[in-house]
Design a protein that fits this description.
The protein is mainly beta. The chain has one domain. The protein is built from one helix and six strands, in the order H-E-E-E-E-E-E. Strands 1, 2, 3, 4, 5 and 6 form a six-stranded antiparallel beta sheet that branches. A hairpin with a 5-residue loop joins strand 2 and strand 3. The chain starts with 28 loop residues before the first helix and ends with a strand. The mean pLDDT is 91.
Length: 105
């Protein structure tokens, strides 16, 4: 695995609560590089602000039922956008309503 892909490798779902994440602030490019966030936005957008979602948070994608862990949540243009990690490796971005949040904390 290259250094660039290291933050997005597979992880043990039993340790989901220990994943690096961004909470109570907007993500930066440094957060993405470090694996604490999946995306960051630059430029002016007055609708952007942190979303009040307890992080990290287990969830399932409504489309296919895949289990993921949300590591960031931000309001943008009237919707909550989340960045998530896949236990098998990789990451993704979705609207919060596209996921079913888990009860585990």
């Amino acid at each position: 695995m290259t250094e660039e892909r290291a933050p997005w490798g597979p992880f043990d779902l039993a340790s989901w609560s220990q994943l690096p994440h961004v909470c109570a602030r907007l993500a930066t490019e440094d957060d993405v590089i470090a694996g604490r966030a999946v995306f960051h936005q630059s430029g002016r957008d007055r609708t952007r602000r942190p979303a009040e979602v307890p992080l990290p948070c287990r969830a399932r994608l409504r489309a296919d039922g895949a289990e993921v862990v949300i590591v960031q949540a931000e309001w943008a243009r009237g919707a909550i956008v989340v960045g998530y990690r896949d236990p098998a490796g990789g990451n993704g971005v979705a609207l919060l309503h596209e996921l079913q949040l888990g009860d585990e904390r």
